[in-house]
Write a structure and sequence with these properties.
Distance between the termini: 42 Å
CATH superfamily: Beta-grasp domain
Helix content: 10-25%
Number of helices: 2
Largest sheet: 5 strands, mixed
CATH architecture: Roll
Shape: globular
Number of domains: 1
């Protein structure tokens, strides 16, 4: 099944300004690991040292934050879009 992952912000720079990654998987978690297998340079932005989701990114599936769904265990289907949005902080 093909799911489109869209990366934005500074993550786009890790992909030579390409924002889309076509991924496979049945859950958000599987899609994330498939994207990392295709583009290992994004791993430090998506996962922490324990391979848990980095708290500095927000993930949306079809424009709905995964926090109001089943988190990274949210099921995906072919044609879904997962958006990775890095949080911005500063002072």
């Amino acid at each position: 099944m093909s799911v489109r992952m869209v990366v934005s912000g500074f993550l786009r720079e890790t992909r030579a300004n390409k924002s889309d990654i076509l991924c496979n998987g049945g859950t958000v978690e599987e899609v994330i690991f498939d994207a990392i297998s295709q583009r290992p340079e994004i791993k430090p932005y998506l996962l922490d040292k324990s391979n848990q989701l980095n708290v500095l990114v927000s993930i949306y599936i079809n424009k709905t934050h995964i926090g109001v769904l089943q988190g990274i265990q949210t099921k995906v289907k072919s044609g879904d879009e997962i958006a990775i949005v890095p949080l911005i902080s500063g002072g």
